[in-house]
């Protein structure tokens, strides 16, 4: 699991579950962190997006949107990282720690997941795709402004809080840190303007699952952005 498959398969490994993923993808890393936070092991298949493997006939049948991650548990197929994480928490880790059981606490976490899917991730794609796929060697000013606005939102959301979702890290923190740590490569977070966000990101970076399941892919993304900038 996580960092290059270095984590040993545990006895409670879910051999009937498969995750197709690319480590540089924030949504894939969110699912990988979720699995590591739950101490769950499943079959992982690395997909080379640069070679178009996510558009292969096999994966297109599973996910007509041709995006990653793709998750399969027996006959169930899911292709949204938030839906996958919620399913894993409810089906295989029903402790209430990562996803509260009570309707109110559950809704607060789902609200964070919607913030990630509706605000953060679209701004990541808008900023990153021109650099990754369109020979652009900088983040456009409007995209910088949009990302800074999201940082400001998160700074306000962290007032009086150590974690976004409660008294400890939850699925909301995990999904958001996958995206925010990647945005930080494109538009570095100013610690003077966003001290609470900076502190939260540092705390999340010290979580074991961040180290095992986010750090490697984040480094791969950083190197890719650096290499493209040098070429262009």
Task: Summarize, please.
The chain is built from 9 helices and 4 strands. With 232 residues, it is α+β, with helices and mostly antiparallel strands. InterPro entries: Glutathione-S-Trfase_C-like (IPR010987), Glutathione-S-Trfase_C_sf (IPR036282), Glutathione_S-Trfase (IPR040079), Glutathione_S-Trfase_N (IPR004045), Thioredoxin-like_sf (IPR036249).
Descriptive report:
It comes from Diatraea saccharalis (sugarcane borer). Residues 102-228 form the GST C-terminal domain. One of its GO terms (molecular function) is glutathione transferase activity. With 232 residues, the protein is an alpha+beta fold. The protein has 2 domains: 3-92, Glutaredoxin, CATH 3.40.30; 103-231, Glutathione S-transferase Yfyf (Class Pi), Chain A, domain 2 (Up-down Bundle). Helices cover 55% and strands 9% of the residues. The chain contains 9 helices and 4 strands; from the N terminus they run βαβαββααααααα. Strand 1 (14-21), helix 1 (26-37) and strand 2 form a beta-alpha-beta unit. Helix 1 packs antiparallel against helix 6 (171-186). The N and C termini lie far apart (35 Å). The model is unreliable at 1-11 (pLDDT under 50).
Mind sketching the topology for me?
Layout (H helix, E strand, L loop, with lengths): L13 E8 L4 H12 L4 E5 L10 H6 L7 E4 L2 E3 L2 H12 L10 H31 L7 H17 L13 H16 L8 H11 L2 H6 L1 H17 L1
Parallel strand pairs: 1-2
Antiparallel strand pairs: 1-3, 3-4
Give a quick set of tags describing it.
disordered N terminus, Thioredoxin-like_sf, Glutathione_S-Trfase_N, 232 residues, four-stranded mixed beta sheet, glutathione transferase activity, 9% strand, Glutathione transferase, Glutathione S-transferase Yfyf (Class Pi), Chain A, domain 2, 9 helices
